[in-house]
Design goal:
GO molecular function: DNA binding
Family: Belongs to the LysR transcriptional regulatory family.
Keywords: DNA-binding, Transcription, Transcription regulation
Organism: Chryseobacterium lathyri
Structural class: alpha/beta
Radius of gyration: 25 Å
Helix content: 40-55%
Distance between the termini: 41 Å
Largest sheet: 7 strands, mixed
Protein name: DNA-binding transcriptional LysR family regulator
Number of strands: 11
Order of helices and strands: HHHEEHEHEHEEHHEHEHEHEEH
Strand content: 15-25%
Length: 306
Amino acid sequence: MVNLEWYRTFKAIYKTGTLTGAADSLFISQPGVSLHLSSLEAYVGYKLFDRTGRKMIPTERGKVLFNAVSEPISKLEDVEKNFQKSTEKLTPTISVGMCFETFQTTLEQYVSTLPFNLIISFGEYPEMLDQLDKGILDLIITPKKGVSPNIEHEAFSSEQIILVGGKDIDTESFRKTLETKGIEHAEEWLKQEKWYGTTGDMEHLFQFWIMNFGHKPNFRPNYIVPNLNSIIRCLKGGTGLAVIPNFLCKNEIESGEVKLIWEGEKKLENTLYFGCRKKTNYQSEIDHIKGLFRKVMGKNNHVAHL
């Protein structure tokens, strides 16, 4: 089934004569424009433009298609504008991507107060970066920076990856083992405990283990649960270990429901970034979301604008 946005992109390329011009007019990335065009060409079964240098010259079939869709698209855009004007207030919709646990810990509590519509998307960081570049997402929260020239990243906080456990874990025994017998015996001590992990995502555990023991863990967690917040709730039962970002369990550690077992020989920290396109129609809404994140997480540390 054809995507109507493909036709809107096709019209913008026809009008501006370049992929860059179309991207600027639609406030999406050039790769996103190229994807829409190639998808439409594959759908209709023929080329719509000849590429001459940077100019996009419509083919004869491209001209026929433009004449067929230009007026209907314009009418749809007029309907959209009139519909917006008929409401008391134009309510924009922005799409934001982040991991599930970050959403639960930060933005979830403020969703009902937002003065605009919001679509939250969960996924892997490379996928979210790609969707941001293509105009599918408007803002992402990520510990990884992309390389697209269309995206800007702003560091706003950091997370430390720590080893935590239930309140019944004998932390004194672990510390004594680490101090008197060394890192190898400490590793063996840890491996004797029950471990929690999440479905398909062991990156935090791998990073922590490699940094402290020089290799990936040679064991699998005993219990695999849906997400990191599930792990924290399970640890409240009193036993078990897990490696997770500190901001997710800050309150539980302070209340004594979960124990900080070890920060590691070297602290493992990730910088958290806002990622957004350099050109956007939703700057005020994006700034509002950024402000909420700074309110919740900005006290962790001070980071410069990158």
